[in-house]
Structure formats: structure tokens, C-alpha cells
């Protein structure tokens, strides 16, 4: 019996007659890196917004560790351990890298978002913050003002601040979007590294990113589940090829 951490049952979201997510049954296994992929407009981000409660489903259910969380609010599911890292870099640009991670750690002190906390109370968190920076290869940037960091490093910082909140399930929204090749490679390796002992669900449109790191891939097209399986299974699926390339597998074969 597989250990399922997150499950959706017939998850559906309609906007004024347009169905953005249609009857999606998703099953994320504990300890896996699971990717939700699909061409632009496939419903990936809408699906994520449903899972993190930024949108209310039209119908269907969401279960986390077997508990129905369909009606839960965003703050409630964050407390349960579902933590989302945003598509747009969600860090404080004028704080240092270390200070950003400390803010994520403040939740544990029960002083979340009390920015006026004394330095002394926050310095207790420095050791843990430095451990997290080491985990994402940012130790040498601890005292750098975040706005001065290259884009790929900012995304690494964002992963560190997400980790600071002790996620049981980490949701990564387009973690490599807008990156050059070198940054994409670095962040992909980073995701693989921090996934040890954790569960990650990521929205991604780049097949190359998910190919080397994901245990399971779910492909959405026009809001519906098109295919699911390992990268090898999904990438050989003629419907997936067509959705991505606009060609049939026979044409792809002929192109080689």
C-alpha cells in the first residue's frame, strides 16, 4: 500500500462557464518529487491555487494525510505543513539573505511577522538559518542584501525560506522560470538535494527540468489529466508529444 500524502478527487474549477481544472485526480506519494506539467494554459497554476486554498474548488475534494482540507483556509493548511514557494521570487529584497531565512524561522518562536523583535531573540535562530543556507549552497551570501543577488540565487534563497517553515509537503511553483541554463541546472540540482526526506510537488513547464529528478509526472492539458507516470512513460506517450510539440509521435520519429 503506497503512502499518499496529498490526494485530489475529481477536483474541478470553473470560471464563468470556463472549466480551468476538470475532474483532476492527483495522488502524491510521501517522499516523492512529483511534477505537474503541461503546456501554457493547461491549468497547472489554477490547480496549485486550489491546493493552497487561494481558490475555492467548484467541486471535488482535497485530502492531506487522509484529512479532507477542501474547506480549509490558506493559513490553516500552512500550519498543517503545506508550504508553497511562489512563482515570483517572494523574498524581502532589502534584507540580507540571513535575515530572510530568519523570518521564515520566526514561525517556530511563535513571533511570526513581529519584525520589531529584539535582535537577541532572533539571533537564537542564526545557527538554524545558517544550516539552511548551507543546505541551499548560500553560506557565503549570508550577509548579502538580497536585491543584489543574481536571480538563480534568489530562487535558492526562496527554497531556504520555504524549508525554514518545516514543510511536510513543499509546493514549488515554476522554480526555474526565467532562468538561464546555468541557473536552471543549479536549481534543479538543489531541488534534488533538498528533497531528501521531504515530499515535493512542483509545477513546471520544462520537461528537461523534471526528467532527471521526478519520481512521478502528471501531465495536464486544458485542465484535464492527460497522462501520468515516470518520465520515461510520459515522454513516450503520443498524446503528450502532441500536446507539447504539436506533432504526432510518427512525425517525431520521422524527424530523427
Automatic annotation (TrEMBL):
Record PANTHER family: ABC TRANSPORTER ATP-BINDING PROTEIN (PTHR45772:SF3), CONSERVED COMPONENT OF ABC TRANSPORTER FOR NATURAL AMINO ACIDS-RELATED (PTHR45772)
Keywords: ATP-binding, Cell membrane, Membrane, Nucleotide-binding, Transport
InterPro entries documented for this protein: AAA+_ATPase, ABC_AA/LPS_Transport, ABC_transporter-like_ATP-bd, BCA_ABC_TP_C, P-loop_NTPase
Gene3D superfamilies in alphabetical order: P-loop containing nucleotide triphosphate hydrolases (3.40.50.300)
SUPFAM superfamilies: P-loop containing nucleoside triphosphate hydrolases (SSF52540)
Superkingdom per UniProt: Bacteria
ABC transporter domain location: 6-247
A Pfam short name: BCA_ABC_TP_C
One Gene Ontology molecular-function label: ATP binding
CC terms in the record's Gene Ontology section: plasma membrane
Biological source species: Massilia psychrophila
Protein name: ABC transporter ATP-binding protein
